[in-house]
Amino acid sequence: MIKNEFTSYKLSKGVIDALTKLKYVTPTEVQKRAIAPALDKKDIVVKSKTGSGKTAAFAIPLIENVVWEENLPQALVLEPTRELAYQVKDEIFNIGRMKRVKVPVVFGGAPFQPQALSLKQKSHVVVGTPGRILDHLRKGTLQLQNIEYLVIDEADIMLDMGFLDDVKEIISYLPEKHTTMLFSATMPEEVDGLINEYMTDPVKILIESETKTEDNITQLGYFVENEDKTDLLLDILYEQAPEYCMIFCGTREMVNVLYRKLRKERIRCGMIHGTVAQEERLRTVDEFRQGKFGILIATDVAARGIDFDTITHVINYDMPFGKETYVHRIGRTGRNGKSGIAISLMNAKEEKLKNTIEEYTGAQITICERKSKEELKLNRRYYLEKQNERRPLKKKKGAVFNKEITKLSIGGGRKSKMRAVDIVGTICSIPNVVAEDIGIIDIRESLTYVEILNGKGKIVLDALQTKPIKAKIRKVRISR
Ligand code: AMP
Description:
Elements: H1 13-21, H2 29-39, E1 44-47, H3 54-65, E2 75-78, H4 82-95, E3 105-106, H5 112-120, E4 125-128, H6 130-138, E5 149-152, H7 155-160, H8 164-172, E6 179-184, H9 189-198, E7 203-206, E8 217-223, H10 229-240, E9 245-248, H11 252-264, E10 269-272, H12 278-290, E11 295-298, H13 300-303, E12 313-316, H14 323-330, E13 340-346, H15 351-361, E14 366-367, H16 377-386, H17 399-402, E15 406-411, H18 420-428, E16 438-443, E17 447-452, H19 457-464, E18 476-478
Parallel strand pairs: 1-6, 1-7, 2-4, 2-5, 3-4, 5-6, 8-13, 8-14, 9-11, 9-12, 10-11, 12-13
Antiparallel strand pairs: 15-17, 15-18, 16-17
Helix pairs in contact: 2-3, 3-4, 6-8, 10-16, 14-15
Bound molecules: adenosine monophosphate.
Adenosine monophosphate binds at residues 24, 26-28, 31, 50-56, 307, 309.
């Protein structure tokens, strides 16, 4: 068996087991440098981009230091967007799965009350967007007096989005003594200001120079008049037949227009930008990740930080404003040693930007000639035919845990004053079942969900058909 290199840190078995299941056996660069100081509760500042494994770099020490018995949150993670909050919550939840860490997520645009109820239950790590976190603080539905760790993730974009005052106000609710970890892809002045004001002698970790693009990304470009862009884009899709492609636009309106255009051509795609309804955005990200469709059209802000590990093509439908954003965008492909293709659509005025980018990255954008419609006729047919085929779905990362976990639903919840101890007490009285076999307990209005770990779901399900919980035989079923 391969040795899990994470064993060289002071990590408990539950964390190592979860990392092994997730196939995290070698720490990434940022993890190598951040985990040890973070475990020792030193403030850290990390300049690193998406894809570097930065989420696990802070999630591992957080999870390790969580005291399970505590009911109030011990760590607070701030994220700029809802999608990121969700993605980061999943990563923390997965790493904490064997330790049964509870990770509620809160963000705006979703009903307040269910979030307040989930915060009322045992919560170890709270993830959220600043605005909604503040709402909960002001209404007294979130308690931060036991916080040991504050994570400010994607700090530059958080400040770009105008969250500086919210972040400062949130910090004012924290106990004096806490560890702060700040992650940012770039370090503008405002971020520096935050570091100087709120962090004590932080360990500074600079991961890679942002100017370098990976050698395994082929960079292509077309010069095109603005009115021909959509037509060219379609030709590029037919020619390249990308498996997983992200198309970046400069504005929300353009994302909408392009989305409608592709759908009209019967090309399966999804879109995300700031004004797409929140549920829709989360679903789109999830479905793209699973591979239900192969093209995601996005603005920079909506896509920032979201991790997709199999992007084959990045298309700059609109060129980004700056060279750094270009490097960020195209860095979404060519990950994990795979090759990738980045294609930029430029007008004549953008030649200067092309030169600046080439100088900055030290790599060339090869200008291509457009193919004729005749040459692409067959490609088009194949590509459009392929749109009707069902795509193989990828498993979610956390699915590896599900084999040994059974989720049960139990009749009775808050209304009948059901408490976690009632459930734990009964389940632990079943022969061969111990407290460590019980996972997350989620008490709803008139129903309770409980996870049974270590393949013992069937034993518990059978026993609970005749065993009372809180003096009553309950309806217990497997929950899908
Ligand atoms: P992030 O930069 O946090 O968005 O992570 C990028 C991707 O790397 C995510 O899909 C993680 O699940 C994955 N990842 C993080 N750490 C490791 C590791 N040590 N080994 C393999 N994959 C990892």
